[in-house]
Write a structure and sequence with these properties.
The chain is 33% helix and 23% strand. Strand 2 (8-17) and strand 3 form a beta hairpin. It is of the alpha/beta class. The longest helix is centred in the first third of the chain and has 16 residues, at 74-89. Helix 1 (23-32) crosses helix 13 (308-318) and helix 4 crosses helix 6 (143-152). It is globular, with a radius of gyration of 19 Å. The strands form 2 sheets. Strands 1, 2, 3, 6, 7, 8, 10, 11, 12, 13, 14 and 15 form a 12-stranded mixed beta sheet that branches. Strands 4-5-9 form a 3-stranded mixed beta sheet. It has 13 helices and 15 strands.
Amino acid sequence: MIVSPRDIVVTGYSAISAAGVGTVPLRDAVVSGTSRLVPVPPEIAGMEGRLWGKADAFKASDFMPPLKARKLDRCSLMAVGATKMALDTAALSLPLADPERVGIMLGCGFGGIANSAELLSGYFGSGVEGLAPMLFPNTVANAAASNTSIEFGMQGPNVTIVQRFCSAESAVMMACRFLAEGRADVVLAGGVDELTPLMLRAFREMGQQGSFAAGFGEGAGVLVLETRAGAERRGATIRGVIGTMRTIGFLPRGAEEDGMRRLLPELPAAALLSLSGTADLCAPLLARLPDRPRLEVHRITGRSLAMGGIALVVLLESLKQGQHGLHLAASPQGPYFAIDVTGGAPA
């Protein structure tokens, strides 16, 4: 699939990651090449030497009252925090002037697992009396987008996508389509995911701690997307432009070269490449890439199913105004994404 939205711009963005809260610590970590991954406690990993990227600097109380924060799951809290900072960068004041025209679309891989485990543990331990009703709304992946829309009064389109390691890219593509079709004026798009000991134990049981699940991380990366006309009408600063987006699904054995030609019909002229998901492990994709500087944010903050939001923020932070970049994302066996991005004014 090829989607070429016209004049979809980025007017704000922010991130929460193992590097810290906001874009400044993330940019500093990427520029210095300093990994923010730390050792996983052996009692969780089941062995020494495993790493993870916990967003330990994030405090929900910095974004909402503690009593309100107690009602939300960690994914929702990080999504609220990243969205608030992105809205501030985009100079979108609250309450929103036209909430029915503001939407949110997030990719999320493992959202709700911690609350689901806690809810079910109560039931298996004490029966119906052990169920905690307050946990139930947060047991689904779309809790983060829903809770964020409630927090900021967004009444436009609300979509959550779970698409393996390309969840955030799928959300950004859908957001651009909704803007191009006139279904919204502003869409918050990106990805959010949490990291729990339960997930690490599950990865261990599946034998994935040393492969795709190695160095897993958590966090949120959110972009504020608008049409150029809408952004100029309200006098917003344009911080980037989203260009052509190409995606392919399953890549059958023997068809790798043809699939990569569809994803990258020409050798990219981008000055900077961003690799997300498992793109760094995809040999057919790597073989088609030119010799260009590469951003591999998973080495800094960890890999996750929705890491594309953070990776896109890093790419936007790294591009100079008018400079072209290419964001590439992959999951094992698919899907695969290629998104053209042009840098704008720094945040």
